[in-house]
Amino acid sequence: MLAAMLTASPAARAGLSPESVALVVNADSWASLTVANEYAALRHIPARNVILLHGLTAPDSTDINRFRTEILGPVLHELDVRGLRPQIDCITYSIDIPAAVDVSADMAGRSFGQTITPVASTNSLTYLHEWVMKKDADYLRLDINRYSRRTLPLVDGAPLSAPEREAYQAAMKMYDQKQYAPAAEAIAKLTKTARNDGGVYYNLACCQALAGKADDAMKSLIEAAERGWRNSGQTESDADLVSLRERAEFKSLIAKMKATRVRVQDTLGFSAQAAWTEKGEYADSGRDAGPHYMLSTMLGVNTGRANSVDEVRTCLKRASIADGTWPRGTIYIERNGDIRSATRAWAFADLVDQLKQAGVNCVLEDGVLPMNRADVAGAVVGIAEFDWNASKSKVIAGAICEHLTSCGGMMGERDGQTPCTEFIRAGAAGSSGAVTEPYALQEKFPSPFMHLHYVKGSTLAEAFYQSLEGPYQLLIIGDPMCAPWRAKGSLSIEGVQSKDEVKGSITLKPKAANAGGFALFVDGLRTEQAGVAPAFTLDTTRFADGEHTISVVATLNDQPRTCLRRDVVVSFANHGQGVTITKKPAPKVAWGQKIAVELSFEGAASIEVQHFDRAIAKQNGAKATIEIDTTELGLGRVELRPVGVMSDGTRVLGAAIKCEITDPVTRHAINAPAGAQKGLKLVAGGRAPVTVLDTFSADWIAAAGVKEGEEFELSGVFEASRADLYQLQLRSNSSATIEIDGQPALTGGEWNWRYAPVELAQGRHELKLRGKASRDPRIDLRLGAAGTWHPNEQRFTHSVK
Length: 801
Fold this sequence. Notes:
The chain is built from 19 helices and 42 strands. The strands form ten sheets. Strands 32, 33, 34, 35, 37, 38, 40 and 42 form an eight-stranded antiparallel β-sheet that branches. Helix 6 (162-176) packs antiparallel against helix 7, helix 7 packs antiparallel against helix 8 (198-210) and helix 8 (198-210) packs antiparallel against helix 9. It is globular, with a radius of gyration of 28 Å.
């Protein structure tokens, strides 16, 4: 065996390694599988870290009970069953998984103020998984995130206890009902004990001011500033405090708040195994020493006002090449009079100074968007509507661009304001927005200091959550592993190199400057951890024969715990067993075609082929000619794994089979004029055609008069504004088939979601939906490229005949 020295600079990772990321996929959706294929290939996510979900109730939104039973519960269970929980720091979701969750069931029986609205994001509920799985609605608290880097100095004082939080929420509900005096009285009782949250004193000041107690309000407001309240912009513009504005002490306080230099706690690497203290530090010991969190993002959103599959894939590709590039760009902070900007203005000036001290250019300017800039390395925006294309600015790889507004994370096709997905379309590696009305509360949005954590080497996911005090409503979209400013470093391994055939015990000696520890993984599962100068002894007889990936991750002593990684692919050969690929598939296979592969394994009871750690094809015997349906795999780069199974259950791994599944054949535009009538034509039961103007509600077919047992046909012409890969989504309790331009595209029934890709050329295309109505017929049909929408009169026309 030859010793090898492997340089790790190209594969280094900050904060997260492939082995610490779990990738969750909607296995019923070709689009979700496609994005997962891309991300797994880009980031070398191990197959065992990919978790496939089936039978999701919806691809866009769900309720908290279904979220626990269909998504989060099964994911956490799989991590436990696979032995991965101790090493996972991040759960990231592919597309066609609900992004918004109605949490009203968990709020029942408790008092909440108007600003605690009952919709949460999937990624944030995953981050707060300990509370969510216990049905503890404290995950709605706006001070729940102890990993958030707080403003300095930290203030001594007691947090509100559970009963006190109930009393506080009841007081805020009184405020919503304009019962200001009793609300002030209730909050004042809570401040008889010194509190560590200046926001409690600020809300007390608001209630007192509205109750006509200006002197008391001024005292409470001064106390709020002394206890960490930094938001001078909100304080100055808050209508609740109008009675104080002309007071000399109010003006003096505002001036003092603006003059106070803002600093936040030091950037800190994340660990899901760490318990977190109230001061935002790692607890000394024990899982019960404090709460635990789990980093989480959505890789993309594809339903409603979303991105196309290709836009999501492009976003992930750009993010992956940004790592460690230390981009020569500028972070732009946009300041204007809008409340969406003013909410975060308290941090702008000091953030600019600290970014420049860190060697990154930052510009604070008056405006809405950076204009005519070719070097946008990040953007802090506060506005309801914007047009990025009109700005003529270019986003460079790895940038986080986001805006504070009410509907930035609301992806419904009829929601208002500009969604955060526009930043993804423009080239950002990550963005965010609230999934429901957030009332412009800073705690619900990332602090601008997110960019400081990012340039200090944090991953995208770490940067976001270090800047969020109450994350429950924030939808975070993007590559959680992206780290443009990660520390540079190298990792070498002595003892093995790729393509070696090894047996018995082997010794691996990893080395990395400034490393605080190393971890050894086999096929993505951590097998050993060691200190500064380890020599790992790996007993290969513990594993089945065949191809395996050995990886080593070094964690540096810096903050935010930069990770360096190197892997080798070798064959374990202790028992003379192996799967032979006698015929490989073509390197490229078109969607809808079969992948054919021939395999042999002497003595095998059966041979199967796996994709993402699931068997997708199986044949008994020692020789197999296997055909795999590409529609079960998604598009793009796929990695298949042949496995030989012995009669005693022993499993032997063959070499990975890599191929690319290409997009469906393009459907050319039809040569037909637009119809004279807006909407779609419905023919059913031999009756005269009727026009359907909208299919937004699934009972549109019943409302149109279609009865049980009747055959129906819905048809219309729509315009594809550009050549693109479209997604069809169909849920129907009636037998139904969709045709595009006369060719079958998707069938549905039994009220389960079905998905299919359709490649459309620019121009007009015809959609037909044919079927036979069941009792109380319901059909939910959506299509689109950059997001999906229900057919309606704005997008479809039909002929009058």
